[in-house]
Amino acid sequence: MATWTRDELDKIGNADKLEITALRRDGTLRKPVIIWVVRYEDDLYVRSGYGRGAAWFRGTQVRHEGHIKAGGIDKNVAFEDVDHALDELIDAVYQRKYGRYGAQYVDMVVTPEARSTTIKLVPRTTSP
User: For residue 99, is pLDDT > 60?
Assistant: First the structure.
């Protein structure tokens, strides 16, 4: 399994926004969407503030593969389910990183519904 380099973790983890694109069933890329990304230890996570019904999130559940761009890094990724025991820790990272935007925005990504959409981004070496 591929792992993130320290440089990739730093650049993506420090990026304010991430462009995420999921693969369709036929292998073509969907339209990219801009979302927030957080780093916890040596992993990167994203969530849908609009829950499981958000189109970009539903797209990640089709093939569990796609592409991201953030902090100058352009990478193919797998979308993995997470251990929800980390939810509170990931909440805290979202609150620290994005708190300057105000509670009306940050609160959206720390709800139980948003937590249910937490995806771990895992680098892939193959092309979509």
Answer: yes
Contact predicate 57/117, CB 8 Å: yes
Residue 83 pLDDT class (50, 70, 90 cuts):
confident
Determine contact, residues 75/123, Cβ cutoff 8 Å: yes
Q: Model's pTM, two decimal places?
A: 0.94
6-123 has which CATH code? 2.30.110.10
Domain extents in the chain: 6-123
What SS3 state is found at 5? Answer: coil
Give the DSSP letter string of 81-109: ---GGGHHHHHHHHHHHHGGG-HHHHGGG
